[in-house]
Design goal:
Blueprint (H helix, E strand, L loop, with lengths): L2 H8 L2 H21 L6 E2 L8 E2 L1 H11 L2 E12 L4 E12 L2 E11 L3 H4 E4 L1 H6 L9 E4 L2 E7 L7 H17 L10 E2 L1 H11 L25 H18 L3 H12 L4 H8 L19
Parallel strand pairs: 2-9
Antiparallel strand pairs: 1-2, 3-4, 4-5, 6-8, 7-8
């Protein structure tokens, strides 16, 4: 007799029904317990929200789970300018292991590997602005330069690895992975930082054109005419500071006839390239 048939013979349908009913009840309870934008976050176009650290901690308290951590890999290399932590989180209840999760973080991730500095600061570091990725934010033009001090981030990198391992472990409890995904905010930061925006001076009105996502190639005025909530989301959540600022200005400044013209007639040239959320996945 095959292994599959042997397994099926051992399954008790009534017990399975009871187990699934219990899982559903726990999921409903946790859904009522967790608070949006505090315990979990959402990204437009992504079906499942991402479980955040406060939410993972709240699940542990609600289910009586005690997390413990073990560092599996600890690399601190001053010569190679590298810091790596790999952590296992074990969730225990009444002395029994309920779930385990893995999490890792490294100084080669863009948020630790690169910094955005002014043009003068970049030149002082031997980097010419024209030879490096640039972007604009509220402080003006910024230039991406490589950091050479990974050891400054030993503690933050360890904390992120711990957080990721906890969230990974919690998602295994009572099939929570069917409700939440993990680290969308980390992935969007990674993508936006790894492929940074190279921007030109952009019009400060509805003619500003998007070069990403479901509205790629359309101006803010065009998008607002059919999907204003998306513009509102960009003004609050866009990872590219220039996109965020343009959306805010479009929503708050008095509209001119140019807005209407831009909505009616697309401009020929894009003014920004970025890696914002596509509407199908996080940025």
């Amino acid at each position: 007799m095959s292994t599959e048939l042997t397994l099926l013979e051992r399954v008790e349908p009534d017990r399975m029904k009871e187990t699934f009913a219990r899982i559903t009840a726990i999921q409903k309870l946790l859904s009522a317990l967790l608070v949006r934008d505090q315990d979990f976050g959402t990204v437009p176009g992504v079906q499942r929200p991402t479980l955040l650290l406060p939410g993972a901690q709240k699940v542990c308290v609600a289910l009586g789970l005690t997390p413990s951590y073990s560092v599996l890999d600890r690399t601190i290399d001053p010569v190679g300018n590298l810091v790596v932590f790999s952590v296992r989180c074990t969730l225990v209840r009444d002395g029994e292991i309920v779930a385990e999760g893995m999490g890792a973080c490294t100084s080669h991730e863009p948020k630790y590997r690169f910094a955005w500095v002014s043009e003068d600061e970049a030149r002082a570091m031997g980097v010419e602005p024209g030879t490096a990725p640039t972007r604009r934010d509220e402080r003006g033009l910024r230039v991406r330069v490589a950091r050479d001090a990974a050891l400054e981030f030993v503690n933050p990198i360890l904390k992120i690895a711990v957080k990721r391992s906890l969230v990974a472990a919690v998602l295994q409890v009572s099939a929570l992975a069917t409700m939440f995904t993990q680290d969308i905010e980390d992935m969007s930061t990674f993508i936006a930082s790894e492929t940074p925006a190279v921007v030109a001076d952009a019009p400060a009105d509805g003619a500003f054109r998007l070069e990403f996502g479901k509205h790629r190639g359309r101006s803010l005025a065009e998008v607002a005419a059919s999907d204003r909530p998306y513009v509102v989301w960009l003004a609050d959540k866009a990872t590219n500071p220039l996109v965020r600022e343009q959306a805010r200005r479009f929503l708050t400044e008095p509209k001119t006839t140019k807005h209407a013209l831009s909505a009616a007639k697309p401009l020929a040239k894009p003014v920004v390239r970025s890696t914002e959320p596509t509407g199908e996945a996080a940025a």
